[in-house]
Amino acid sequence: MTATPAGTDVAARAVTAATRAPLGQRLRGRQNQNLWFWVFVGPFVIGLIVFIYIPILWSIYLSFFEAVNTVTPSKFVGVGNYLDMMRDSAFRSSLWTFIVFAAFIVPTTFALSLLTAFLVARTKVMQTFFRSVFFLPTACSYVVAALIWKMSIFAGVPSGMVNAAIGVVGHDAIPFLSVTKPPWYWLVIVTARLWLQVGFYMILFLAALQRISPTLYEAASIDGANAWQQFRYITLPQLRPTSAAVLLLLLINAFQAFDEFFNILSTFGQYPPYARPPLVYLYYVALGQGQDFGHGSAGAVILTLVIALSALVFNRFFSLRGED
Amino acid sequence: MAVVDRSPRARVATAIRYAALILGAILFLIPFYLLLRNALMSERDLGSPQWYWVPPSWHPENFTAIFNDPALPMARSLVNSVAIAIVQTLGVLILSGLAGYGLARIPYRWSNAVFYLITATLLIPAAVTFVPSFVLVSTLGWISTLRGLIIPGLFQALATFLFRQFFLGFPKEIEEAAFLDGLGYWGTFWRVVVPNSYGFAAAIGTITFIGSWNAFLWPLVIGREQTTWTVQIALSTFLTAQSVDLSHLFAAALVAIAPLLLMFLFLQRWIVEGVERTGMGGD
To answer: B66-279 sits in which CATH class?
Structure first.
């Protein structure tokens, strides 16, 4: 009579099947459970199928066709779009941009958020204040951060904050966003992302630190373990699951980077030909002037495979390291 | 840990720790300060090579100017952003709440299969589906419409997954009592389960609201006409085109993040819980 455990449901189904109840009754299930299940879950599942599954399948279909400005193509090109994408040096360079970007931003964000979590966790005075300050940028959008970074902190004119500071020591203003040698724009992009993301992951690490049982530390200090040993043999191992999850999230987020690149680097509606991560590239191929859905879809499929593969490799690597 | 270490070495360590925290806090607050400062400065002072930590003159009229600037559709894009974020938040809570409850509590032969169908989409990075979703939405003729901006974002597998986990841990006794009173699944959910889940819903809701308010790529590709711009798109358009006064742009940006800053001041507890839950996948 209650929210039934699975066992009685099986029994009830066996009875229903044996007595061959009318079809309608069998579809509705005991106490109309089947009906109620779909009343609760149906709307969500239908939306998921319509707005996620169908587009993905459709997109895979489009990737084998020549589909410029149309979503009902007729010219089958096989793996032609895929080969074009692999041969396209701009596409390959967008993958390279992602690798360079991820290789820097993932470990740096990880280290800084872990460090702030440790600092905040061990602080007694004004802990809430410090936590809030580091967490506050999470409220900021990438667009707003891009505005502050591009137009105020790293503005390429003498009125920019950094240029004003180096002007004090007699250095000429650096045009941060309009030179590629050296590539100053990376400094602008990664610092903006660090500011936006560190607080979010700090919260995850803080939660993980709070979950470590104090008795572990008590036992260790009775056994004479010093602060470093406690950190090395208690804190770090206890943080492993969180660390793995954070690294994976950071990797996926770096892969999806778009907002700050788009807003910091494009000027007067033009995006420079360099520093195009995969999504920026796809945006211009599939949705820009081209509306080339065939190549865009092929690119999306390749990117999905790349990210799935790197997540897989990452997981494998991490679970192997976990053995010791 | 229980004994407070008062050795000189420990004191030096504490001092270094606080110095690092204070330095970090200053660095993290500077961008907010610049946003505020620039929003209140005149265009001329903002472009002057002389750096001002404190502006030579204050210009709060920038905030009224942005609502009167015909080039900057500020009011319209704020209304759009509010409407989209509220409808999306409520929609996600209702759809994922119902689905999560059904998956957690209603016995059904294919329940597990449906659950896998839902969680499989968690493995696909959202950004990869943007080309296919755009194709679908343009086929439906939903480009530059509010429904094109709102509806595809209503089906969040992560929220459903988290609601399911939450309801699995919900004390069964309360529901059983309600069931015995003849409330059925629907009545039990709305009258007993929902009133006891406000805290969890607040955590998921605040995170959904923030994500929706700050969303950029989807509104960029769907909200092409000015009438469907969100506040992020309006800011971005003028940032990349550089066609309005910079001080006005900063004033507009401050208005754009004000709702979220207020949320962080008053609802931080739920936001933190939401971050912990969504970040760790309900761990």
So the answer is: mainly alpha
